[in-house]
Specification:
Rossmann fold, 2 domains, 27% helix, globular
Amino acid sequence: MNLIYKTVGELNRGMYIYYPQGPNRNAFKRCSITVLREEDDESSVLKLLFEMGLAKLAERDQIILSFPNPVNRQWKADIDGDDVRAFNIFQDAMAKPDNRPMETRPDGFPTYEYMMSTWHPMNDTKYVIGIGSGGDMACTLASCYPENIAAVLCVNADLSEQALSKAVYAPMPICLVNCTDKARDYFIEANSADIVNKNEYRAIYKNKENPLQSVVVDTVNKELSSDLMEKVWNKMFRKVRRTNTGAHGDCQPRMDISEAGFEIYIDDARLDEQEKKPHTWFTHLPSYVKKTQDKKVPLLMFFHGGSDNPAEAAEMSKFHELGEKEGFITVYPWGTNKTSWNCDMAEDEEDDVGFTVSLINYMIENYPVDKSRIYLSGFSNGAAHAQAVAMTHPELIAAICHIDSNWPGKRLGVSEFNYEEHRPFRLAIEKKKSFDYRMPVWYTYGNREPSYPVYRGCSQQHQYDFWKKYNNIEIQSTPELDNPHPCGCGVPGQKYELLKPSLRHPHHEYDVHRFYSMDDKPINLYNYVLMRDKGHDIADMDPALGWTYVKQFRRLPDGKIEIIGLD
C-alpha cells in the first residue's frame, strides 16, 4: 500500500498521502482529491480508503489522495487564517513524499532530476472533500479562493458570514450533503445556476451556458458513504476541470481518454533504427480518415508544457477534438527525457528536434498526411519547442500557432539576447541565407503572464522581434518596463481586432494584433493575440483561433508559402 505519513516542514504539521500503484511518472494524467477530515489519525484515513472506497477510485483512475491533519481535530475556516495558508502548502506538498526543496536550473526551470523524483497532480483537476469543520473549510476555500479547486463535496457544512462577506462569486461545481441553506444559496448564485431538476433524492441546479457549473443538493444522505463518493466522482469530479483562464478560473470539461480514440505508442523505438531510442506519442485520426485513407489531410503536432505529458497536453488543448471536426490528424509527442523539450538544442541534452522531424517523416510515410500542410503548436516549454522546430526545419512546416511561450531569454525580468549565440536562432538565420523562408505565426499569450505588459528586454520582445525580422515585418522599438504601451503587447499591430469567440465563456476576450510583411503584396505573417484575464493555461478557444489562422497556409516544394484561403 502506497500510504505514507509526511510532516510538512514549513508547517510542522502532518498529512497522509496515498499514491496509486505504478511509477510516479507516466504518459497519463493524474488528478488529486484532498480530504479535510476532523480526525488526525491513520485509522480515519484507512476507513476512507477502504470502507469508503477511495483507494479503489485512486487505483482505477490514477488519483493522488491527500489527508492533511487539522489542529486539535478542528479546521478553522477564517479567510485569512493559518488553515487557509496551510491548505495551499499541503496542496503543493502532495507532489513528493519528502520535504526536499525544488531544485532549479539557472533559468528558473525545475531540474530534470527534481521533476523525475516527484509526482505530478495537475492544477486543473484538484478536488476537495470536506467533512464537518473540514466542510466549513472547503466552503470557505470554494467561495473565497476557488482558483485551484475544480469541484467540491461538502458534508455537514456551513458557509460562514465572514466567508460570505469576502466571497468572489466565481463558478464552483459542488455537491452539498446535509449543509446549510446559506451555503446552498451562495453556490447557486455563484454558478448562475437557474435550471432546477428535483426529485425525492436530490435537487440539481445548472447553468444554461455551461452545465458544468452545477450545484447538487443531496436530500437523503446525512453522512459520507462509499456509494456517495462513487456517484460524486462519476457525475461531477471526473467531468470538470478548472483552467487558469479567468480571474478565478473557469469550469471546463474533462476528457475521457478511454473514449478519445488515440493510437498510443509507449517507449516505441521504431523511429530510431540505429540506437533504438524509445519515444512516446499519441496519435488521433478523424473518424472518416480511419474509414478511408484516399484523401491526404493536414497534420497538427502539439507539444506539451514542461513537466507535462501527452495525455495532459491532449486534455489542455483538445486539438484532437477540433481535428475530428476540421479533418486533420493530431499528434501529441512526449519529450525524449519525459519531462521537457530541449528547445535550446543543447548538445549535451536529448535531440528533441531530431525526434520531432523523425516523427513527422514517420507520419508522412504511414498515414494520409498532406506534407504541404503540417502545422505545429505547443504550450509553454512546448511552445518554445514548436518554434525551434519551425526555425530549423521551415521546409517541413506550413505555419505555427503556439501558446504562452516565455522564451527565449530570461523567464522573468529584463535580459539581453543575442540570436547568433543561441543554436536554433543561429541555424534559422543560416538557413534564411540560402532561401528567404517565411513562417506564418499565430501566438497567444495571457495578460496574467509574467511578461505583461510587454517591455523591452523581456522574453516576449526577443521572441516577436525575431519572427518579425524573419517574416520581413517592420520592427518597432518596444517601450521600457516603466513606460509600457497601453496595448499591453509591447508594439500594437497594424490591424487590431477584439474577439469574443467562446459560447461557454462569453467573458473571454482576445485582443488580436496583426502584423504585415513589407512585401509588394503585404501578408499577415505575425499575430500577437492577447487573452484578457488568462494566466499560464490554455483557454477553450485558443486552439480554434490558432487553427483558423494556420489552416490557410501551405508549404510548397520550393519552400514558398501559398495562401489557400479560409473556408
